[in-house]
Recover the amino acids of this structure.
């Protein structure tokens, strides 16, 4: 951007549930990576006090705010609530990322640069230069298989449909009818990207190295994987319906 171009308002959304150990370092990492972003912590009433810690951070850092939710309802519901806040507050770009350092803040400047030419930027493990670190064979097979499965059924070219590291232009979020998104977990990520593609938006995959969480426990489960496996068929049938109409 030139010096005369107004700075785009950018919001990084961090959903949290029992992420107290990660919250301070990840927010510091995000704020240190670029001066062009604000941070919204979305806490689902974490028993470990993550929400209280987030309030302490906001008291000393004006670029960080907190959305407190009454109970844990899943990643998808947390993101949808945050997206509604972002649109209401006039943000032009919205970034979703994990609070556990699986997504390195160092990628944020490149992600924002790519958003100049793409409507949706996906941090991708499955394009040249991308990858994962710290996973066992079973987790690798599950992730590769889930993406191949979804890509084949939905007939799309995006390699990392399950990525949770994304940058949306606001027009994408406005177009994909957020209140009608019913998926959670892996399926939520697949559905958002699929809806963006169905609306004709340009999607760019940016290589990242996904690193298994430093602290805490993964929220991935076989139930989440099973939901993704079944939901992609609903998306496929929905696509066929819209084509017929």
């Amino acid at each position: 951007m030139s010096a005369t171009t107004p700075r785009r308002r950018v919001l990084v959304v961090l959903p949290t549930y029992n992420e107290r150990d990660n919250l301070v370092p990840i927010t510091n990492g995000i704020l240190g990576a670029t001066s062009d972003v604000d941070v919204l912590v979305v806490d689902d009433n974490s028993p470990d006090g993550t929400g209280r810690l987030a309030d302490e951070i906001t008291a000393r850092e004006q670029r960080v705010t907190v959305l407190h939710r009454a109970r844990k309802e899943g990643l998808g519901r947390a993101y949808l609530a945050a997206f509604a806040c972002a649109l209401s507050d006039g943000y032009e770009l919205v970034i979703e990322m994990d609070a556990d350092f699986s997504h390195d803040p160092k990628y944020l400047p490149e992600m924002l640069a790519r958003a100049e030419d793409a409507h949706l930027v996906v941090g991708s493990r499955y394009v040249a230069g991308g990858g994962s670190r710290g996973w066992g064979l079973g987790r690798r097979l599950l992730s590769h298989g889930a993406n191949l499965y979804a890509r084949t059924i939905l007939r799309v070219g995006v390699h990392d449909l399950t990525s949770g590291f994304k940058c949306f232009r606001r027009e994408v979020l406005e177009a994909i009818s957020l209140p009608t998104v019913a998926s959670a977990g892996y399926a939520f990520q697949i559905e958002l990207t699929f809806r963006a593609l169905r609306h004709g938006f340009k999607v760019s995959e940016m290589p990242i190295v996904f690193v298994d969480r430093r602290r805490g426990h993964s929220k991935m489960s076989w139930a989440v994987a099973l939901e993704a496996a079944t939901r992609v068929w609903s998306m496929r049938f929905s696509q066929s319906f819209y084509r017929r109409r």
Summary: The chain has one domain: 10-244. Residues 222-244 form the longest helix (23 residues).
